[in-house]
Amino acid sequence: MTSLTERRKVLTDRLAELTARLREIDEELESHASPDWEDMAVEREEDEVLEQMGTSGKVEIAKINAALKRMDEGEYGYCVTCGDEISPERLDVLPHTPFCRSCAAAKAAS
């Protein structure tokens, strides 16, 4: 079983990784300045992919920050919907999840 300290490390390591990746994406998006129309079209397509990656990264960062806050408040590992304990196996796979398996399934179905 993974300890709270180990889970915090996993989350903070992932947070650092995502932050660095978002910085790289921002730098890449700002670096485009091709005068050629064809190159600009390709760059724009690449920018859309980078923007989507950035958006998903920001969503994951928000989830990680929320999980870290729950840790600080002593609420980590408990479902924010029903209050039941989230299984350690689920937290091993999704350490930032705020939902137990049942509530996550119900949320996905709605």
What class would the helix/strand composition place it in?
mainly alpha
Could you name the ranges where pLDDT drops below 50 across 5 or more consecutive residues? none
Give the overall silhouette: elongated
Describe the sheet with the most strands.
none
Query: In whole angstroms, how far apart are the ends?
Result: 32 Å
Task: Provide the helix percentage.
Answer: over 70%
Order of helices and strands: HHHH
Strand content: under 5%
Number of alpha- plus pi-helical segments: 4
Quaternary arrangement of the chains shown? single chain
Give the overall average pLDDT: 88
Tally of DSSP β-strands: 0
User: What would you report as the Rg, rounded to the nearest angstrom?
Assistant: 18 Å
What does this protein look like?
With 110 residues, the protein is mainly alpha-helical. It has a domain at 4-77. 71% of the residues lie in helices and 0% in strands. Helix 1 runs antiparallel to helix 2. The longest helix has 36 residues, at 37-72.
